[in-house]
Amino acid sequence: MSQEEIWAKQEEMNLQVDEGEQRRKNKKRVITNPNQLTGHWSEQEHNTYLEFLNMHRTVMESQDQKKTSKIFKLMSETIGTRSPSQCR
After folding, report:
1. Has residue 81 got a pLDDT over 70?
2. Which of 4, 15, 24, 71 shows a CA-CA span of 20 to 30 A to 86?
3. Contact criterion met (CB below 8 Å) for 41 and 49
4. How far apart are CA 22 and CA 16, in angstroms?
5. Which of 76, 69, 70, 67 has its CA nearest to residue 49?
6. pTM to 2 decimals?
């Protein structure tokens, strides 16, 4: 392999690395619902969360029911400003 071929190969690898970094930079979290908040929970959200837990205590205490009843989706809809993942 000649020196020119080595330089061309290195340049190609550098471009691939740059493109990979560019792709990673573009993978930011996309907000699909602008009504959902991020960061710390407000006092009202926290109180709604606690009320929900008290109303659905039996479901929350059962591992099987938590998985099959989509309880966190319901919790998210009840709170209104948090996603199911944030509620989980």
Report:
1. yes
2. 24
3. yes
4. 10
5. 76
6. 0.61
CA dist., res. 13 & res. 83, Å (int): 40
Reduce the DSSP state of residue 80 to 3 states and report it: coil
d(CA 26, CA 21): 9
Give dist(CA 6, CA 10) in Å, integer: 6
- pLDDT, tens only, 24-74: 555 566 666 777 888 899 999 999 999 999 999 988 888 888 778 889 999
What string of DSSP letters covers 32-78?
S-TT---SSPPHHHHHHHHHHHHHTHHHHH-HHHHHHTTHHHHHHHH
Placement of tokens 């190969």 in the chain:
9
> Is the Cβ–Cβ distance between 65 and 59 less than 8 Å?
yes
